[in-house]
# Entry
Amino acid sequence: MTVTRLKTKNQITIPQSLVKRLNLKKGELFAIDIESNYLKLVPVEITPKYSAKDLKKIDRIVKKEKDKAKSVKSGKEFEDYISKI
# Structure
């Protein structure tokens, strides 16, 4: 067991030996929870909602519709709208 200290802004350092053992990478995201009075860290992967192709479509929409003030609701209506472009 390794001892670490709670630092300013509630930060802790994960010891290098554990980082190597778990193959953790800089910038990795974690879900954190309390389980039986222990902190539980679980690495998570966030996948983007829109693909690079969708983002290019969105950019084209913005350029095309910039001064037209077209309103499209978020969610399904928006996804349908960009799929037609």
Summary: The chain has two domains: 8-44, 52-83.
